[in-house]
Amino acid sequence: MIRVAMLSYWHVHAWEYTEYAQNHPGTTVVAVWDELPERGKASAAKLGVPFYEDLADLLAREDVDAVVVDTPTNMHRDVMLAAANAGKHIFTEKVVAATHAEANEIMAAVERNNVKLTVSLPRFYAGYTAAISRLIADGALGELTLARVRLSHNGALRSERNPEGWLPAHFYSLEQCQGGALIDLGCHPMYLTRLFLGLPDTVSAQYGYITGREVEDNAVAILGYTNGAIGIVEAGFVNPASPFTIEVHGTGGTVLFGTPEPKLLLQRAGGSWEEIAVPNDETSAFNEWVGHMQQGTVATANIALARDLTRLMEAANISVREGRSVRIDELAEA
What we know:
The chain has 334 residues and is α/β, with parallel strands linked by helices. 33% of the residues lie in helices and 24% in strands. It contains ten helices and 15 strands. The chain has helices at residues 14-23, 37-47, 55-59, 76-85, 100-112, 127-137, 174-177, 187-197, 285-295, 300-322; strands at residues 2-7, 27-33, 51-52, 66-69, 89-93, 117-120, 144-152, 202-208, 218-224, 230-236, 245-250, 253-257, 264-268, 274-276, 326-327. Strands 14-13-12-11-7-10-9-8-15 form a nine-stranded mixed β-sheet. A six-stranded parallel β-sheet has the order 3-2-1-4-5-6, sandwiched between helices. Helix 4 (76-85) packs parallel to helix 5 and helix 8 packs across helix 10 (300-322). It is globular. The two termini are 36 Å apart. 47% of the residues are buried. The model has no long low-confidence stretch (mean pLDDT 97).
């Protein structure tokens, strides 16, 4: 049995990951640490496990095998370095870190300590993602020209029921989150666009502040490629009826998903629209992580995509901050 410690209940998905660890036959939750002691104590009491106010004390436990990291984004580097150097396997919420250089530090510590790392990239494992990737690999779309992926909800919109919106207030902290809609919800469109088109050469982003928060609640990033292809990444916290949407276009055809129904539609050049069967989702990121711990293998594709996701988010933030297009090769490696 793999003994898992939960590191923070800051993120909205922390209890979801707790349930994964409780329900998986190969894992069990044995301890909690939280940067906010009161929240951590309450969470530990709910789980019936010890709470540790000092992270070092928890990581010193030899009977803790692995950790789930749900801290604020600005704490990812320090927390994951400490966990990796203590030899604890790591499952983490995206993004890996605030910058490419910090992500590289984490990856180096993971490799040096033979720690199994997996990042929560749930839509990477979705059946529609596998089906679209297969169509691209089979050449059904020809040379790719454009990919557009959009994901948005109404979490920042104020209402009588939720005067400040239903997202927790700390999701609007620039210091803690290192961004807003794009670095949170926009991670999913970003890594999918990266998966379909590859790593771009440039990133140019525009952020909007509809509700006047410290972080953006409306965002678009444009990924540029030397071959002329374009990636469009869209995210927002201010839309009550905005379906998750994928479009991938090429010289030989187009594939659409979620426009607005969750159907996968393909039109080849000169043909008519046809519906493509969507396979079942593949294993979840959490299940993959457990498998790598059990088998001694590495989440190679997951880690590569997560590393590039951090690079792309850093480039988008720089683009908005400096008002320019940012080349990926500008980003510091260390």
